[in-house]
Design brief:
It comes from Myxacorys almedinensis A. This protein is α+β, with helices and mostly antiparallel strands. It is 34% helix and 24% strand. The chain is built from three helices and five strands, in the order βββββααα.
Amino acid sequence: MPPNYRRCISCRKAAPKEEFLRVVRLHPSHDIVLNQGIGRSAYLCPQAECLRSVRKKDRLSRALKAPVPESLYQQLLQQLVVSPSR
């Protein structure tokens, strides 16, 4: 994979990291946030079907090795609504 490319945890598409939503488990607090901070990260395509799949199969929790709060899924859904063609 070329440098600065990442892979979606749902559909496995590889693309430049700017095309994805980034979910981060912050170090050392273990809080989970969107698009900011340093820590363990997972990348997700900005598509509703990828979000549905990740939520259904609990892939985000497994990738981050931490439970993901329901509020974070709501934030991700709002990101999709605000910028669907991102």
